[in-house]
UniProtKB/TrEMBL annotation:
Residues 1-20 form the signal peptide. Keywords: Signal. This is Uncharacterized protein. GO terms for molecular function: metallopeptidase activity.
């Protein structure tokens, strides 16, 4: 296995052009239908795109090609942001992608970009990748996958491997019927929202090819009861109730964890990302902090400060600030009756850090955890 990993890394960053797959142009006819096209845009490294196409083809058994770089002229960032909407990439690139040689109705496209990625709804801080459920195109962003060395962004072996993993996950799900699972070491681990989690998952999917949809016990349900949004999964003994007037549930996207939930409030300044898990896999907030701290360092974000651990109404919580970003976060865990509810609240707002932290405490106190047999009653 180690030998295979080393071979992959060498191929991803090899400078020997003879070994790299030459980018395909839109004009010549392809000798056979293409299952997957990697489409680099602007200044995404063409050599990396070509090498990834070759390696992905060997790994999946599919015909995978890399196109020439496609332009993004005129594509504007989201208002008051340096991020770009995944939907805009699809609208811009899809017409050109369909003209590539070997494209069929079944061809899947992976757009590669160096721009920071989000969606038009901006119900999350960022995305490593995004795919609209009604399209055959995913967008993978390198922006947050690079490493920092002496304050400079670097495309090294680790960063290239992160991009490769995100591409392979998208292709496996779209073309091979791979489904997400609960193994944090597997390529198809359900929720990869941090650099630490992405670095942990392996290069292989242990489940092989599967076409079945996720089992019903995995699917998150959302219902409105007495002015509260009730979140739960069939296998859970608990329900999490969120004030309906304060929060908006983000529309589910391809690649979201089946048991995950994504909400926003205050015009996107306040975010909640969470998950339902089996209590058997629960761990303390200290371990969560290790992952968060590693993720912050890997992305070169402002250093966290004023880290504190508190117990709030049955929740084990960890709070910290990122002062130069005017941001405060809370990680909260609730474990009972075989269910582990984990969530992270993030508030970005000008003002004193303590005011933001108190606002997060009040938001957490407004949440109600109930046994399913007693929905509507605080437990």
């Amino acid at each position: 296995m180690l030998r295979r990993v080393l071979l992959l890394l060498v191929c991803l960053l090899s400078l020997n052009l003879a070994r790299a797959q030459a980018p395909a142009s839109a004009a010549p006819a392809a000798p056979e239908p293409v299952a997957v096209y990697l489409i680099p845009t602007e200044n995404f490294p063409l050599l990396l795109a070509g090498n990834m196409a070759a390696m992905l083809g060997r790994d999946t058994g599919l015909t995978v090609r890399a196109s020439a770089a496609l332009p993004l002229d005129g594509m504007a960032p989201l208002p008051n942001s340096g991020q770009y909407a995944a939907e805009d990439f699809v609208e811009k690139v899809m017409p050109l992608a369909k003209t590539l040689s070997g494209v069929t109705a079944q061809t899947f496209f992976v757009v590669l970009t160096t721009r920071d990625l989000n969606t038009r709804s901006r119900n999350s801080l960022y995305y490593f990748s995004s795919r609209a459920s009604d399209t055959n195109m995913s967008v993978v962003s390198m922006a947050r996958l690079l490493n920092y060395q002496e304050g400079l962004l670097m495309l090294d072996v680790t960063a290239a491997t992160r991009v490769y993993k995100m591409c392979k996950r998208a292709i496996g799900e779209a073309q091979l019927g791979w489904v997400r699972n609960d193994d944090p070491d597997d390529l198809m681990f359900g929720q990869v929202s941090s650099i630490a989690a992405l670095d942990r998952i392996g290069l292989e999917h242990k489940g092989g090819k599967r076409t079945a949809v996720p089992a019903a016990p995995e699917q998150l349900s959302v219902a409105t009861v007495d002015g509260m949004l009730h979140l739960s999964i069939p296998a859970s003994a608990l329900t999490l109730a969120v004030p309906r007037q304060d929060w908006t549930v983000r529309e589910r996207q391809s690649g979201d964890a089946a048991r995950g939930f994504y909400l926003s409030a205050q015009n996107g300044a306040l975010l909640m990302v969470g998950n339902f898990e089996n209590a058997y896999g629960s761990h303390g907030v200290g371990r969560a902090w290790d992952n968060i701290e590693a993720d912050i360092r890997a992305r070169g974000e402002p250093e966290p400060s004023e880290v504190s651990i508190e117990n709030i109404g049955g929740w084990k919580t960890l709070l910290f600030d990122q002062r130069s970003a005017n941001s405060s976060s809370m990680v909260a865990y609730y474990v009972r009756d075989g269910t582990w509810i984990s969530l992270r609240l993030m508030l970005t707002k000008n003002g004193k850090p303590e005011a933001r932290r108190e606002a997060l405490r009040q938001q957490l106190k407004a949440l109600k955890v109930s046994a399913k047999s007693a929905v509507g009653k605080a437990q």
